[in-house]
Amino acid sequence: MFEHTKVAEQAILVHLYLSQDSASEDLNELVMLVASAGVQNKAVITASRNSIDAKFFLGSGKAAELAQAVAELQADLIIFNHALSPAQTRNLERLCQCRVIDRTSLILDIFAQRARSYEGKLQVELAQLKHLASRLVRGWDNIERQKGGIGLRGPGETRLETDRRLLRERITVLKLRLSKVSQQREQGRKARQQAEVPVVSLVGYTNAGKSTLFNRLTQADVYAADQLFATLDPTLRQIQLAEFGDLVLADTVGFIRHLPHDLVAAFKSTLQESRDADLQLHVIDCADERLDDNIRQVQLVLEEIDAAEVPQLKVFNKIDQNQQPARIEYNEQLQPVAVWLSARTGEGMELLRQAIRQRLSVDFIRLTLILPPELSVWRSRLHQLCAVQQEQFTEQGEAVLKLALHRTEWARLLKQSDGLLQNYLQAAV
């Protein structure tokens, strides 16, 4: 038999065109996924069928062709761009004498490679074990299977039952650990809510340029590359937006077609940053020919995690690839709904900052404070918040400050000063 645990590096890709499947997975995307996994693409085999073959998924004739290609190319892995049943996987492995995985297993493997944080690793392992538990099969001979009847169970049944028990125990441990990590993350989220700092979350299809945009806005050094799922773990940074104040920017994992359900479930605590955000920046690759479909796929995942109702600003990235001008699009209420920019070149970034300010400024207020010299500490605090738009001094040394800041920020300042600042408020617009 083939070595089931051998590290696969050279693969044959398989894509089946189904006549009734009008939204079939894109074969080019499979090639990109394989490249992201670090696997060498030896060949691509395609077929067209009206229905799925119950035994081999793609039919006995095509399966035989696949087995021949494996022998000729000496491939050690077959990757299907579809979801396979455990029986289909087992039948194909026996026929081709090499390991067979489906699209879900490939995505799970990429996530396992990309996870860096403790929480991310736990989430990926949990998703992998749940997927494995549903298809725990081995490449053993029939004599090792259950023969039926008391005293007639073979060693294969014993091993499978042992593995199932170990899987259940490990899944239970992972869930407990994730529960503790989720509680810690929830405490941090509540602390930000109590501090009333607005949260802006980046969402979008994988490889749309979220991490590059995140780096531009925060001057951070988050890993970004032209590949699917370049980054996995969520990253949060506090930034100051001129004429607005502090806000938290959250970069989350990218979405993809047919994202494994176990992964969505496992990453719900991570994706909750998107659900609880004050504003979502939906980053879109405007140079991708599948633009509209990518937008729909992202919305489906947002609906699944109950984040579809969060206010959203579309960010059409990569205008440098199709010569689009940088611009802001407005709705009938003169609110920004879309920004066109290039995160790579920086073109249009100031337009994005302007649009974020406008979208978050529904509760944005402008006021004037006249502070005496002895309250210079509050004057410094307002400058730190980037809330001072204009400043003048009277002959008595009083500072006349024209401010623009979020209502929540002003409420927090009043609370911190025990209402003292209210006494120096001249006017509000």
TrEMBL record:
<dbReference type="Pfam" id="PF16360">
    <property type="entry name" value="GTP-bdg_M"/>
</dbReference>
<comment type="function">
    <text>GTPase that associates with the 50S ribosomal subunit and may have a role during protein synthesis or ribosome biogenesis.</text>
</comment>
<dbReference type="InterPro" id="IPR035647">
    <property type="entry name" value="EFG_III/V"/>
</dbReference>
<keyword id="KW-0547">Nucleotide-binding</keyword>
<keyword id="KW-0460">Magnesium</keyword>
<dbReference type="Pfam" id="PF01926">
    <property type="entry name" value="MMR_HSR1"/>
</dbReference>
<comment type="subunit">
    <text>Monomer. Associates with the 50S ribosomal subunit.</text>
</comment>
<keyword id="KW-0342">GTP-binding</keyword>
<keyword id="KW-0963">Cytoplasm</keyword>
<keyword id="KW-0378">Hydrolase</keyword>
<keyword id="KW-0479">Metal-binding</keyword>
<protein>
    <recommendedName>
        <fullName>GTPase HflX</fullName>
    </recommendedName>
</protein>
<dbReference type="GO" id="GO:0016787">
    <property type="term" value="F:hydrolase activity"/>
</dbReference>
<dbReference type="Pfam" id="PF13167">
    <property type="entry name" value="GTP-bdg_N"/>
</dbReference>
<dbReference type="InterPro" id="IPR030394">
    <property type="entry name" value="G_HFLX_dom"/>
</dbReference>
<dbReference type="InterPro" id="IPR027417">
    <property type="entry name" value="P-loop_NTPase"/>
</dbReference>
<dbReference type="InterPro" id="IPR016496">
    <property type="entry name" value="GTPase_HflX"/>
</dbReference>
<feature type="domain" description="Hflx-type G">
    <location>
        <begin position="198"/>
        <end position="364"/>
    </location>
</feature>
<dbReference type="InterPro" id="IPR006073">
    <property type="entry name" value="GTP-bd"/>
</dbReference>
<dbReference type="InterPro" id="IPR032305">
    <property type="entry name" value="GTP-bd_M"/>
</dbReference>
<dbReference type="InterPro" id="IPR025121">
    <property type="entry name" value="GTPase_HflX_N"/>
</dbReference>
<comment type="similarity">
    <text>Belongs to the TRAFAC class OBG-HflX-like GTPase superfamily. HflX GTPase family.</text>
</comment>
<dbReference type="InterPro" id="IPR042108">
    <property type="entry name" value="GTPase_HflX_N_sf"/>
</dbReference>
